[in-house]
Structure formats: C-alpha cells, structure tokens
Write a structure and sequence with these properties.
- By secondary structure, this protein is α+β, with helices and mostly antiparallel strands.
- The protein has 2 domains: about 1-120 and about 280-290, Diaminopimelate Epimerase, Chain A, domain 1 (Roll); about 130-280, Diaminopimelate Epimerase, Chain A, domain 1.
- It has 7 helices and 17 strands.
- It has an 8-stranded mixed barrel, surrounded by 4 helices.
- A hairpin with a 7-residue loop joins strand 15 and strand 16 (about 260-270).
- Helix 4 (about 135-140) packs antiparallel against helix 6 (about 180-190).
Length: about 290
C-alpha cells in the first residue's frame, strides 16, 4: 500500500471550523492525474491540492509545483487552495514566503503574524476585464429579481486567473435570499466569457465590511472564494467601490455557516488595475494519512 500524508486547513478564518476547508497532500509524486481526481472526489471538499516536490534548485527558480482539483476537474488557479497550500508549506519549512508554481503560472504568498494568527497575502495576476452583462439576462439566468440588481454598477467579467462575472445586488436580503438554479446559470455562462457568478452587495450591515458575497456552483455553496475576491478587488477599484491601495474586507460563507473574512486590495495606475492582493488567516485542523494500492 502507498501512504500519502495529508493536512487539512480552514482558510480565510482565524478559528477552526470556519472559513473554507482544504485538503493538502504534501507529496503527490507517485499519483497519476486520474488518481488525483479520484482522491479529490473522495475528499468531497470544494478543492484538494497536491504538492509535487522537486529539486531545491528548481523550486527556488520556479516555485513549488502544486495541482488543484475540485470534485470534477483540475483548475489552473483558485484562491483558497493557493493560500492554504502555501500556509502548509511555509509552516513545514519554517519560512515566511512561498511561491507556488500553478497551471496559471507562479503565485507568491507572504506570511506574517497578525491579529494573533498566521496571516497570508497572495499577489494575483493582473486582472483582465471582459464582457459587460445585461441585468435582465443575468436575472433570468441566476434567479434574483431584476429590481434586486444594483444597476449603478456593472455586471462585469473579471479574471485574475479564473473568470468570474461580478454581480452587484442592492440589498443584503437579495443576497441572502438568492436561489440559484445551477443548470440554468451554467447554460447562460457557457455562452460568455465567465465560468461562474460571484454575487456581492455593499449593503453589508457592518462598517468594517465593504462587500458581502456568495458563490454557488456545482459543488454547492463556497464558503470563501479567493480567486473571485481578487476579481472583486479589481472591480471595486475600477468602479470606485474601494480606493486604490485601500485594504477592505469581503465577508463570505455566512449562509453556508462557514463565516470567512477575505482582505483585498488593488492598485490603480491610470486606467490599469494591478497589484491585486488577497489575504486571510489559516488554521490547521487535521493531520493524517491516506492509503492507496
């Protein structure tokens, strides 16, 4: 039997049993692609990551190779798996900066002690802004009433490695009452440039929170979506919801009973948004071993 060490962490949370769960396999060198996908299905989490250790000189030059899988597919990039995997590597190696070599390219995560815990912040790729979506079309596809959409801001596709359509809603009630038909949403998204919807509202009910967010997809409700939060950071700066360089908080996962706090910021040079940074705390929950033939 082959034995594979595994660590699970809660990401974008400073306490265990909150945030977004992640399973990290610390040495996946003998796993095939098909086995990684099967293991991710076994884990039944939003994502599972697989570290593929390489020679120290290669890792120094290119970063630590990491693969990210959902229960159905491999992803080129995802936020909470990047932060959580970097957290596991940084702790095991006693370092404060980790570069991951992902399918989308290198992503660097830096760690410091903040608010009594281990806080990491990643710099995502510069955003690419895509199509603007008609509110009536999104309402028909995604479920909110047309009047629930905040038309003072655009519904816009943004990607920092994975494309999301950012959908602003007028009220917290519209967000919490969202009833997404996943198949109908997927049918709409298949005809455009976004892979998933990220629903947000400025009506957070808290002066310390700039946006409340939800992301619902084929695996259920995501408690924290770091890739979408980076897209939202770029969108906020582009449209004046946040100032350039201002670090603001996105809350997510409340409806899933996994409250998450994602801290984001982005810079603006002329009309170009860049330096998209997404950060949060991580907590280790479990260590174990998976045995396979």
């Amino acid at each position: 039997m082959r034995r594979f060490p595994i660590v699970t962490v809660d990401v974008f949370a400073s306490r265990a049993l909150e945030g977004n769960q992640l399973a990290v396999f610390t040495d996946a060198r003998s796993l095939s692609d098909a086995e990684m996908q099967a293991v991710a299905r076994e884990m039944r989490l939003a994502e599972t990551t697989f570290i593929v250790p390489r020679d120290a000189a290669v890792e120094h030059e290119r970063g630590v190779a990491v693969r990210i899988f959902t229960i159905t597919e491999e992803l080129p990039f995802a936020g909470h798996p990047t932060l959580g995997t970097a957290f596991v590597i940084a702790n095991s190696r006693g370092i404060d900066e980790v570069t991951l070599d992902l399918k989308v390219g290198p992503i660097t995560v830096r760690f410091l002690e903040r608010d009594g815990g281990r806080f990491g912040e990643m710099t995502q790729h510069d955003p690419v802004f895509g199509m603007r979506h008609r509110p009536a079309d999104v309402a028909a596809a995604a479920g909110p009433a047309p009047e629930a959409i905040d038309t003072s801001l655009p519904i816009e596709t943004v990607s920092t490695g994975f494309p999301f359509a950012i959908v602003p809603l007028r009220s917290l009630g519209a967000l919490t009452g969202l009833n997404l038909d996943v198949r109908r949403a997927e049918a709409y998204l298949d005809g455009g440039d976004a892979r998933l919807f990220y629903f947000v509202t400025r009506a957070t009910g808290s002066p310390d929170t700039r946006l409340r967010a939800r992301m619902i997809f084929y695996a259920g409700e995501d408690p924290a979506t770091g890739s979408a939060a980076g897209c939202a950071a770029a969108w906020m700066v582009r449209h004046g919801v946040a100032k350039p360089g201002e670090q603001v908080t996105i809350e997510q996962g409340i409806e899933a009973r996994r409250p998450s706090r994602i801290l984001v910021r982005a810079a603006l040079a002329g009309s170009r948004v860049h330096e998209v940074r997404v950060g949060g705390h991580c907590v280790e929950v479990l260590r174990g071993e998976v045995t396979l033939p």
